[in-house]
Design goal:
By secondary structure, the chain is mainly α. The protein has one domain. About 60% of the residues lie in helices and about 0% in strands. The protein has two helices and no strands. The longest helix is centred in the first third of the chain and has 19 residues. About 10% of the residues are buried.
């Protein structure tokens, strides 16, 4: 196990990231909504990167 893998902050980041990806997959966000279901996450990341 890597150092810091069990800290509360790390656990919180992993849980939040997992929840975000699940919401993207289910179409709860407007990001990537026009993409086919299998490509929704990639499209959302591309849209987000373009906005930044």
């Amino acid at each position: 196990m890597q150092p810091g893998a069990c800290t509360d902050r790390t656990a919180q980041a992993v849980i939040a990231g997992h929840a975000f990806i699940q919401h993207l997959r289910r179409g709860h966000y407007e990001l990537g909504i026009d993409a086919p279901r299998g490509l929704r996450i990639a499209a959302a990341i591309s849209e987000r990167a373009a906005a930044i």
